[in-house]
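User: Predict the complex.
Assistant: Input components as received:
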Amino acid sequence: MKISRGIGILLAGAGMFLLGHFLSQLVLDLIPTINPANSSVIEDANYHMVSISNQLSIISQFGLIVIVIGGIIFVTDRRKKIKQ
Amino acid sequence: MTRILILLAIAGILFPSVIILSAYGDGLASEILPPAMIGNKNVTLSINSSPFLIDNTHVGTQINFVLQDASNQEPFQEVTLAVSAFKDNQALFGHVFMSDSGNFLFNVVPDNSSSKISIDEQGGIFPGFLGHSGSYQIKGPVFVSGGLYKFKINVLTMGSYDNQISKSYDAAISIPETKNYTINDNDDGKQTVTIIAYYDQIGNFQYDSNKKEMSFSMPFNWSQDNLKQVTVVHQELKIPRTFTNFIVTKYNAHVNGVELPDNAVSIDDYSSDEYRIVHLILYKKEVNDIAAQRSSKPMMDFTLSPSNETAFPITQYTRNAQYKISLSWDPPKIISGQTTRFSFQILDPYLVNKTVGSIDYDFSIIAGKNGLMFHKSGTTNNNDTPNTVDVNFPANYSGPITIGFENLNGNSFADSEISGTVSKPRIVPEFPAGSLVVTMVIFSLAIIVPRLARK
């Protein structure tokens, strides 16, 4: 099965968007915040996991841009095909 | 064990650990924690909870956190907080919250039907995708009861989500709780006393009908850290006006055996027609005085009983705050069937002990709620001497009365009501005839029996 490059980019963008968003939320939910003894290990884990969540969130935002690019390429390719 | 210690040591070296500074907060519905420096910024955390007063039928609570610049009260942008909540030293929930505006709003929906706590970010189809509103819904078995809720708030980012910092705040919010207690008094029968606890949950309520004393307990942390931060501990007692033994002009109140000063006990007869409201308000000084003599247990044991003394004169503002009324009566205990002399002055509310001169007044005594017992219209004295009214109370009435001042200087809004109680006279036989007869019989027998015995 052959798919056009526009659809491929569009699907990749959708994957980035969904995966990035849900993984970002998942990491946020998994952060161990209950730290009554002020353990520095947990503090550091908080910072690193927030960083990871932020990066995953950026990936999901890039996914949206990739979806738009995929859409443009799909439309352009289709027009080219029709002209030919 | 050694391996764990080595791992912890390596983790401590590898991770950029910083010294965690802490700020403490006490339990109020609203407070701004003391400012602290983060980098070159003077930062404070503001905490609010609403509704302020929660009764037993409340359906939700909103908690608001704002991380703001202490110099201009502007919230910081792109703030990440790791918040964990505790009650009675048990963790309730912990979660990381993000807000682009630095303003956090938690809609807490208490739900006892589920044991799981769900925390959801609100706003749009994919909340948190294009930004964080800071609005979250927390649903589950949390905030189902009043009391002191402690929060550990760790600020992870501030100014930008990439700007990671370390600042820890210990804060607390008191959710007031209303509880009703039914007691049985020897004289006044069944009465329902309502207590609104504004600091932490109270318990162990007891009433001693012989000593006429109410007592209850509240958990309290007597550590120096907590004492530094506690600004006020407040209990509100609603006493029915039919509970005549407790409708007095002065109360004896103790906490852990330490007598509270008069200014820590305030009486509100104005807010409710059915209840007298007694506020026990302990400011920092009173709490520290008790701390100096406290026992080792982490509690505050309150007792409240009517005082035998009278706190005259009773002063009260009129409803429109135009005048201040100073009232006393003699004898201090109003007895049915006897005459009581009421002395009063109408004072300027803004000047100390300055009467307002000659004005018209309506003075009335109302039995219970609406049974007019006495009424007099008159004009106050032009000098500072008190005005007097003699009232002969009927012999067939005892119970709560309302002493009303109305239409002061012709203004229908210038009125005030003060509560009192008419007591039954104590019937003490003037001459102990019974004991005299017994004594006479014994003496007579003591004389007659030996004489008869000789014969």
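The CA atoms of residues 166 and 377 of chain B lie 70 Å apart.
Let me know if you want any component modeled separately.
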